[in-house]
Every structure is written in C-alpha cells, then in structure tokens.
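Listing S7. Sequence submitted for prediction.
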Amino acid sequence: MPEYLATLIAALIGAVIGSVGAVFAESWSAGRAESARRREVLVQRYLFQLQESIEGLWFRLRNLTFEGGRYVMSEKYFQMTTLYALGRVLAIERIVGLEGIYPQLEDAYPTLGTFLRQNRVNHMLEGLGFYQYDRISLAEAVIEPVGDRLRPSTFLEFRKRYESAAVTEQDWLAPAQEVVAGLSKDRMAELQKALREIDLRIAEHTKMPSPLADLT
C-alpha cells in the first residue's frame, strides 16, 4: 500500500474515532447534567420539604414531652398546631407517593427511596386507633393543588380551613385529634427517635445540616 494512502486512511480513521469520541463525551456530559438537574428538583420539591417538616414535628414533640408546652397552650391551639405539624409530614409523604417519587429517589440516591418508603411516619402511627384512611384524611387536609402539581399547605392555609369549617365538617379530623391528644410521653419519645433517624438520612443528600444531629 502506498505510503500516502496509508496516511490518508489513518487520518480518516483518526477523524472518525475523534468524532465518535466527541459525540460520546457530549452525550455523557449531557447525561450528567440531566441527572444533576433531576437530583436538584428532587431535593427542592420533596427532600428538603420532608426534612424541614420532620424537624418541625420533632421539635413540637419535644416541646410537648419535655418542655411543658402542653400546659401553656389552649386546647384549640394545641390541637390545631399539632395537627398541622403531624399533617404536614403525612402530606409530603402522600405527595411523594401520589407523584411516584420513591422510584425516582431510589434511582438518584440508591437505597434512599426504599428507606423512606419503608420508614414512613404514616406507618409509625399504626396501632393507635388512627386508621389508614383517617391518616390519609389528615394528610390531604394539608395539601394544596397548584396546577397539575400538589404542595403542602402553609400553616395559615390550614388554619383558615380548620377555623372556617362547621363542626360537622370537622368530623374528618376527629380521629386525628383524639390521637394527638392521647399520645403518651413514651410514644412521643419513640416517634422522636424514628424522626431523627429519617432526618439525618435525608440531610446526607440535601446537604442541609440537621439541627437534630447533636440532639437525642
């Protein structure tokens, strides 16, 4: 084979390899960017909100269990605020389930989706006379539709709904109110321990330091 032809063939092969390599590198870079974007969406829409709501419930339970908060609250304030603290966690778990987010979490953060699904606060409330659809009712009382998406209610939105409902319309919250009023200190302490474990696991992925890290 003439030397010039061998050189030409080698140049063509090099060009093809370089072109394929560039396409591969571009595709790999685009894939990484898309994965990073998906993780950012999961953190902003779901994980951080779940982390924040769990921390809020943890501090509410500590206030009731160890700081005597229950004794300075009116019955209405106690029920409304504690229902909201608990309901917000249940609402976010409900949204995550309804929108099929657990598999996405598992894909983006291996084992996290399974862990959160198996350690839902919803499951921790079983055996208290607080039945599945009563828990769903409380969760959905703290959910607001926004277009084709769902989001947890703000406290003011929940308070407005709670205070404006007629007595007969509040029946759907009666089981939740009974459970909240009847939680023993031991049960609250158990919930706190479980909530802290979940919170610290989520914080590993949100990169938001947990205020529960140094608390027990």
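Caption to Listing S7: primary sequence and predicted structure tokens for the chain studied. The chain has a mean pLDDT of 83. The first helix runs from residue 3 to 66.
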